């Protein structure tokens, strides 16, 4: 066995809930996932033909070529893969939709002349791929979110933490997990998930006016929140009451 170690980045993907779909569906989604992975690697400037690939049954492990810039495996590779998965899923049926867990790690591995890769970084990668936080995050995400991403602490520290172009540390959250004998912290992201929109500020014209002005703020009896009420005269001897939420009440004043 070759005793020389090579520092390599390693990526693994696992198809969510692949069991029970039947052989034909599984073969289809495996082929489509491999195709989309190839396209995402090439769009990221990583030579797919130079990668060492290992079939995981319902997923794939990829060892990147020596010297690969690790940050490129997070961005743009992950967004590129998520985009392709989401586009594909729009036209796929229930048996052929693909959502995946993605894990990334790096370390010194043994690379044999026949392309076999071995070493403890692959064990860490396998534990990351099975980590409960990544499974739970993807299961609880909207169906339009096609992937969860989990980075080892080492990988995060050398890439995302520095905020290189396209990498935003605030998009990740730190999680702890234990799988078999491995206990560690990692960094979790849901690629493609939009953060909740911030509440828009209240328009200035909807704010309460000082007491005594023509548009005075008042509290609605029995309610927990304050509402504004505007009183204007209308033609035909009427009075128009408009609440802050847009409801209008018109009272007609008749002369006797």
Structure in a nutshell:
The protein is α+β, with helices and mostly antiparallel strands and 256 residues long. It has 6 helices and 12 strands.
Task: Describe the fold and architecture.
This protein is α+β, with helices and mostly antiparallel strands and about 260 residues long. It is built from 6 helices and 12 strands. The chain has helices at about 25-45, 70-75, 75-90, 120-130, 130-140, 155-160, and strands at about 5-15, 50-55, 60-65, 100-110, 115-120, 145-150, 175-180, 180-190, 215-220, 225-235, 240-245, 250. Strands 1, 2, 3, 4, 5, 6, 7 and 8 form an 8-stranded mixed beta sheet that branches. A hairpin with a 3-residue loop joins strand 10 and strand 11 (about 240-245). The chain starts with a strand and ends with a strand.
Keywords:
4-stranded antiparallel β-sheet; 8-stranded mixed β-sheet; 256 residues; disordered C terminus; alpha+beta; globular
Q: What about the largest sheet?
A: 8 strands, mixed
Number of helices: 6
Shape estimate: globular
* Rounded radius of gyration (Å): 28 Å
Number of strands: 12
**Average pLDDT over all residues:** 82
Element-by-element helix/strand order? EHEEHHEEHHEHEEEEEE
Distance between the termini: 109 Å
Structural classification: alpha+beta
Question: Into which percentage range does the β-strand content fall?
Answer: 25-35%
- Helix fraction bin: 25-40%
């Amino acid at each position: 066995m070759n005793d020389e170690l090579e520092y390599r980045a390693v990526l693994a993907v696992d198809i969510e809930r692949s069991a029970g779909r039947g052989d034909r569906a599984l073969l289809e989604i495996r082929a489509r996932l491999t195709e989309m992975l190839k396209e995402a690697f090439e769009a990221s400037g990583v030579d797919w033909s130079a990668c060492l690939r290992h079939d995981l049954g319902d997923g794939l492990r990829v060892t990147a070529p020596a010297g690969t810039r690790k940050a490129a495996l997070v961005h743009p590779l992950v967004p590129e893969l998520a985009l392709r998965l989401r586009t594909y899923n729009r036209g796929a049926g229930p048996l052929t939709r693909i959502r995946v867990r993605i894990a990334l790690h790096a370390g010194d591995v043994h690379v044999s002349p026949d392309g076999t890769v071995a070493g403890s970084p692959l064990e860490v990668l396998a534990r990351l791929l099975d980590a409960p936080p990544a499974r739970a995050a993807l299961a609880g995400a909207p169906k339009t979110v096609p992937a969860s991403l989990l980075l080892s602490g080492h990988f995060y520290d050398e890439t995302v933490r520095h905020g290189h172009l396209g990498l935003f540390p605030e998009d990740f959250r730190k999680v702890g997990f234990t799988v078999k004998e491995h206990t560690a912290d990692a960094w979790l992201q849901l690629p493609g998930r939009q953060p909740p929109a911030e509440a828009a500020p209240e328009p200035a014209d909807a704010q309460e006016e000082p007491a005594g002005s023509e548009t005075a703020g008042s509290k609605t009896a029995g309610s927990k929140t304050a509402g504004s009420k505007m009183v204007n005269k209308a033609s035909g001897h009427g009075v128009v009451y408009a609440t802050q939420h847009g409801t209008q009440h018109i009272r007609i004043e008749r002369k006797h």
